[in-house]
Amino acid sequence: MSSLFNQYRVEELLLATGTLQKRLWQEAGELRDAVFGKEVFIRGVIEVSNFCRQNCDYCGMRRDNQKLDRYRMNSDEIFDHLQSILPASVRDINFQTGEDVVAVRETILPLVRRIKKESRLGISLCLGTLESKDYDQLREAGGEYYIIKIESGNEAHFKAIHAPGTLAKRIEAIHYLATTGWQVSSGFIAGLPDQTKEHFLETLNLLHRLPLRGTSVSPFIPGENTPYEGAGVMSGVEALNSVAILRLQNPDRIIPAVSAFNIVHEEGYRLALEAGANLGTINLTPERQREDYQLYTKHRVIMNQERVLKAIEKAGLTPSEKSMIRFLKKI
Ligand code: 5AD
């Protein structure tokens, strides 16, 4: 583990500025380079449905948000759309939904089967907490990578923000997925209301101990039409330092640069790559649905291929020719 952890407490690294911050990001970037090369994986994401049975206080798709128009796409519609617009750089595809079991059974399952059969794309899913038999069916259909966030690693805080179900159940799901052939990714939101430094450290420790191939941090953005609408935000600096800390703690995991970094810092996306991230996401949701997939705000920054490639280049990195999922199978 990095010598930075012997010299500084994690809380200090989190708040690092100036030369310490430079050193933190540099070490993290070098670790990424040593494990993955100076390369960034590129995935596409389609937000398939915004129906959600959960009611998370931080998320605009919560079931109590009646201001949101709900949509659910069907599998043919998505397949045709992908065929016509898939950018050349994309090697993996992620399908994301609110927690919507109808979408899982009616859209995602047939879609995954078809993509598996007709393309070489790696298939990643982010669909919430489901029943074991749903995970099994999705795996059998061709799903390979499952993203299931813990959001906060402190049980009481998890409950206070009304994150899905219980933390224990989420952890159980992560273990189940990891032991049934999935590559699993999890992550947290940095700067949530009532998140203390202790919660933060507890979250990092928990993520480190879990059987994960990927880990993400997203800066908290107060969501429109959520109970946290007027809440304060943490500085972009802390969220970016979190990326570097995650990398130093978990050298061989996939760590995404998420578009929310661009909301908290002008050049946030590129800086996340400089701080050790190694995955970029191109948003491929059709425009008509995009506005209603409201995690936090209508004004989120949409990352298209041009913006993602530019950020990668500016960070001194190159887009990977490989699927992250296939790469992970070999390490
Ligand atoms: N701020 C930042 N990230 C959020 N997410 C949901 N709401 C917010 C928010 N207000 C993230 C969560 C979720 C992912 C899809 O988006 O991490 O798992």
Topology:
Elements: H1 4-7, H2 10-14, H3 18-36, E1 39-49, H4 75-85, E2 92-97, H5 101-118, E3 122-126, H6 132-141, E4 145-147, H7 155-160, H8 167-179, E5 183-190, H9 197-209, E6 214-219, H10 236-249, H11 261-264, H12 268-274, E7 279-283, H13 287-290, H14 305-314, E8 318-319, H15 324-330
Parallel strand pairs: 1-2, 1-7, 1-8, 2-3, 3-4, 4-5, 5-6
Helix pairs in contact: 3-10, 4-5, 5-6
The structure holds 5'-deoxyadenosine (5AD).
What does this structure look like?
The protein is an alpha/beta fold. It has one domain: Alpha-Beta Barrel (TIM Barrel). The chain has helices at residues 4-7, 10-14, 18-36, 75-85, 101-118, 132-141, 155-160, 167-179, 197-209, 236-249, 261-264, 268-274, 287-290, 305-314, 324-330; strands spanning 39-49, 92-97, 122-126, 145-147, 183-190, 214-219, 279-283, 318-319. Strands 1, 2, 3, 4, 5, 6, 7 and 8 form an 8-stranded parallel sheet that branches. β2 (92-97), α5 and β3 form a beta-alpha-beta unit. The longest helix has 19 residues, at 18-36. The mean pLDDT is 96. The chain binds 5'-deoxyadenosine. The site of 5'-deoxyadenosine has 12 residues, from loops.
User: What is the percent of helical residues?
Assistant: 40-55%
- Taken as a percent bin, the fraction of beta residues is 5-15%
The CATH homologous superfamily name equals: Aldolase class I
Principal-axes shape call: globular
Average pLDDT for all residues: 96
Structural class, from helix and strand content? alpha/beta
Q: Could you say what the CATH topology is called?
A: TIM Barrel
Biggest sheet architecture: 8 strands, parallel
CATH class: Alpha Beta
